[in-house]
Amino acid sequence: xxxxxxxxxxxxxxxxxxxxxxxxxxxxxxxxxxxxxxxxxxxxxxxxxxxxxxxxxxxxxxxxxxxxxxxxxxxxxxxxxxxxxxxxxxxxxxxxxxxxxxxxxxxxxxxxxxxxxxxxxxxxxxxxxxxxxxxxxxxxxxxxxxxxxxxxxxxxxxxxxxxxxxxxxxxxxxxxxxxxxxxxxxxxxxxxxxxxxxxxxxxxxxxxxxxxxxxxxxxxxxxxxxxxxxxxxxxxxxxxxxxxxxxxxxxxxxxxxxxxxxxxxxxxxxxxxxxxxxxxxxxxxxxxxxxxxxxxxxxxxxxxxxxxxxxxx
Length: 313
Hints:
The chain has 313 residues and is of the alpha/beta class. The chain has helices at residues 11-14, 33-45, 78-94, 102-109, 112-121, 127-145, 151-160, 171-184, 190-199, 207-219, 222-239, 271-285, 289-292; strands at 7-10, 20-21, 52-63, 70-76, 161-168. It has a five-stranded mixed beta sheet with strand order 1-5-3-4-2.
């Protein structure tokens, strides 16, 4: 497992990693047929090169709390990794039996078991993921079945296309690397970076709450989330302190990152929040609440049904 940390590996190695996992907190698979077409076009353009770099993949390496098996959770690079898996699966179904080059046939055949094992083990909870995976798989099958997708193209994809991999034991470090990668490359929406930051703070015992939070977050329109943070929360936060609030971008997401109450020792000024947090939890869990049906909200929460918004950022 350590061998893939800070390494350049071939596509055939990436898709055959035995512990490859898409964690529940990941965003849905959103690559469209246009994204797939761009990838296939790149393969054509760069196939004369000795190697072609497809980007990087960041993993969180850990043991599953239930099975105790080692997992490689993809923190960054899910979209391209799943697309590569779909391409290899399409090749197995459309081209394997008819290949003439024995070396290419042997390489592709060796991927049958790891690809099928991954797809059988992995679950996708989002309808968006199901739709895009199906559409891209069908398009991948059509693309690789064409006569202009040669055996040399298959060899190039499997053996000369590469990714840079990082495997970190600390999930916080993995997300920090994810943040920095995206800070230098293609822009993500600020609220996507915030989601990644907050989800990493869930404890192992809160896996179901984490999954529920992801499903709720992804059920919301991205444009609505962008509007909420940029036009409301960001401006309220800054105006309350007499500061300018003209633009909200990923460089300013730190305003909403907060602190982890389990690490409150690093932030002594947050001690009152930690006390209030545990008091509210204890109050709501008492058996008396089943009788009086009372429920206390966190005093530092932000609720749209309050007569007066209470926010302590």
